[in-house]
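The freezer alarm interrupted the setup, so I double-checked each line after restarting. Inputs confirmed:
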Amino acid sequence: MTQRQHPSLVPNALQEREVSRRSMLQLASLAGVGVFFAPALAACAGPKGAAATNAGTAGAGGGKLSIVLNRNLVSLDNKLNQYDAAVTVQRAVRQALTEIGDDLKPKLVLAESFEQTKPTQWTVKLRSDIHYSDKSPVTVEDVETALKLYFQVPAGYVASQFPEQPTFAKVDDHTFTLTTKVPVVSLNSLMSNILITPAKANKPEELSTGLGTGPFVIGSADTGTGTYRLTRNENYWGEKAKLDEVNVSYQEEEGARVIAITSGQADVIDTITPESAEALKKNADVDVLETPGTRLIHLFYNFRKPKGSPLADPKVREALTYAIDHDSLIKALMNGQVSSAQGVVPTTLAGFVKTGEYTYDPAKAKQMLADAGVKNLTLKFIWEDSEFAGASRVLEAIAQMLSAVGVKATLKMIPKGGDINSWRRGEAGDWDVLANGYGNQTGLALTNLVGQYGGTAAKEKTRDTYQGYVFPEITALLDQAGAEADEAKRDDFLKQAQDKIWATWPALWAWTPNNVLAKRKRVTALKLRATNSYDLASVSVSG
Amino acid sequence: MLTYILKRIAQTIFTAFLATASVFVLLRLAPGDPAASYAPPNPTAAQLAAIRRQFGLDQPIPVQFWTFLTRLLHGDVGTSFFFKRPALQVVMERLPYTITLAVAAILVTALVAIPLGVWMARNANTAPELGANVGTIAGQSMPDFWIGFVLLIVFAVNLGWFAPAGFDSMASIVLPTVTIAILQIALISRLVRREMVANLNAPYLTVARSRGVSERRLIWSHAFGNSAIPVVTALGTRFAAMLNGVVIVEVVFKWPGVGELVVNALQQRDFPLIQATVLVTVVLALLVQLAVDLLYPLMDPRVRLGEASA
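Predicted 3D structure, all chains:
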């Protein structure tokens, strides 16, 4: 391109045109700057702490609460999926016939009574004083529709917890029965996850808006950004919520969640690593709440090994457990925020039986391995990324502990959303130990026991057992426990099953992480449950 | 001019289609099972199969592609696996946030980088200019997520001047904008400096100076005028890149834009959402490039679009 000539050498017409184009560009730039910067500059006119926006009224009532979750809530419904922190928010808007109480036992909510009137039949009576936030009544048809739709959702998480779909039969306007082919003693717990919505508005998908019977109503919902605003339901049929408003958002980056609570933008955050929890404990404005959890994380053996494989021998599986120094791991790498398992399910679950403890005794490990004739054993560990906090370093430490007893460990982390299911099912390759977490949404040990240890040959044909765990006598005991209405007999079946499971040494080690939640000190009356959720209606803010 | 614009629009449509189709195929060839992201914990084979059926992933890839093409002709890029809503709708809801951030960042960049570059050119090889040089190199070298966290800690946490995340007021745009602009200012100012140094030493400027043209006019009307095209091109290219979502900054500041959306979509293997994002951002980027090209004749009347330059 040739360089520009001096203006005096350029014809006048061209000069004028150049000037007007340039001026046009200059004016446009200045206008654009003004449009974009004026509001920002006005907003920056003085210090504006995020805490100011969350200030609530002093005293027992009123105020706003800001919750920042670790993942997008997507909807205020749970037909497809459910995770702990979501329960808190979902149940604030929609309720079920029952809920899992602080003692992990089912507690009546919308139901006045929920009784097993026959071995295969439960009779439920709705409360007469319940209604939706628009004061319309809750009907038995709403319950029937809700139950039906949960089972229509493909691969829905909640429906998969039921052994079968109960048959609904209306008795009168407030009463109905739920009948199953085989006795389901935990039906009242399972129904705690069936949220009730007006039948006409309900769909076989997750609802992001709509009516509920809960202490809050949806003020606004943006599923795209995962932000929700809940306001107090002034028509609530029970004791009204103390808070005026709850703002829910999410931030996947844990560091950003911590910044949000320390800066005052968030009042409550969940899913905190041990390191962040320790740092937050030193913050004068923040409380860290911990409760024993209901999730079991275990290093589960692959039970699909051929007969001659070392891991097919329970003595070898037991021997390896003695190589793990659990106390050191818990102190050094887990900040003391987990508890070593004392059985095959978390201690918090109803029906838990203590069957034993994991013990560190490397000499015994070596001896038992030698007695079993095991030499040069190599174990392949697999796990999904972010399965639990600090997974990589915990497993690297375990690999070193195993090498001290002459066992070599190789570690393979599967990226999130990748092929972990193929690996679990034995379709992607051979492995020996799977680091996996198993959650619980019913408060019952039976749910975990059936899910993990109730494998059958039929299920194993489609590789749908839990890592190939099939012991018919254990499955039979669990079936008996699930069908036994007498609590004492049921507990006996459960004890027998858990003792037998422990004797098979299903895991190299298992532990239950504590639920950890951080809240600002202005938040009061927040009681964190073992299910890692809390009752929003009773929460209040001060100052 | 009109022919040129129509030709560019046709190229945009073709390029957008090619990009979306490529992403479609690459996503389906990539390892991993999207159904796993939407299945309950420890899913059965039947549950995974049901999810794949629901998402249309049980079909052979050519069948999926044909279905995708026929829907695309009607402006339907598919339903987001995660949000269960039209993917294009989800992206369009987030786009204004990204555009706002990109426009703010590019304006700040232009306002600071251009005068800075001009100043550096005028004071080339002096001590102050060396200091500015070091500053711009530092600005180019610092990763934007680090800058973002430093600004967050200082201004949001310690001083409490701004909210650390999300978008709750216009003030929320300040920290993300500054984070993006620091690198861009470093790049653009150095480009401006280079172009201006070449033009400030040109003979025509000496002649103009000798004829009594003011220094201000010499610099801004003449020297910068001749430097403008590469600078505007660079600004346009940076702006187009920002429209893809300044991913790291959006994640750090929880800015609800397209970048943050696509990060989640990739983690969730939400194919329709990824495809919709690619389609929208490619179209936007190409339109921005077209707009930049249309500015050239305004900046230099000798430029004729669609013709080889003399």
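Quick read of the result. Chain B touches chain A through 81 residues (CB under 8 Å).
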